[in-house]
Write a structure and sequence with these properties.
The protein is an alpha+beta fold. It is 25% helix and 23% strand.
Length: 143
């Protein structure tokens, strides 16, 4: 009979510890806290205090500079083109000199593959050349 109160007390202590750890883990830092007026006293004429601007740390700036160096030269998914003659939509080019990939009509394709009767002849960083055997079309990425 004594065992049940001990188990209950242990569960209560465990729950309190979990709540304390959880609230501390997800609490905003004090330097970024924003003081807002009470909800009942706020109207359109109540001025808000300006937010504090927190400057990024030197480590974060170094991470951003490293990310810029490692980033692609451009985002291949920004602006593709639809060729009115072939009806194909070039949505991006994943450029790699050894094995480039063109995203045409949502499908990743490489040189030599076919889509809707057109064969991919060449993939360059800014365009894809396709042919249906009689005519050649160029699908371009718009910079």
């Amino acid at each position: 009979m004594i065992q049940k109160p001990r188990q209950l007390a242990a569960l209560i202590v465990l729950a309190v510890v979990c709540v304390v750890v959880y609230t501390r883990a997800f609490r905003r830092p004090a330097d970024r806290a924003v003081a807002l007026p009470p909800l009942g006293h706020m109207d359109s004429s109540t001025p808000l205090e300006p937010l504090q601007v927190v400057q990024p740390s030197p480590q974060r700036e170094a991470q951003r500079e490293r990310a810029k160096l490692l980033a692609w030269g451009r985002d291949p998914f920004l602006r593709g083109s639809i060729d009115p003659m072939s009806g194909l939509n070039l949505s991006g080019i994943i450029w790699d000199k050894a094995s480039p990939v063109a995203l045409i009509n949502g499908m990743p394709l490489t040189v030599g593959e076919e889509i809707d009767g057109f064969r991919i002849v060449e993939i360059l960083p800014d365009r894809v050349t396709i042919t249906d055997g009689t005519t050649t079309h160029h699908l371009r990425i718009i910079p």
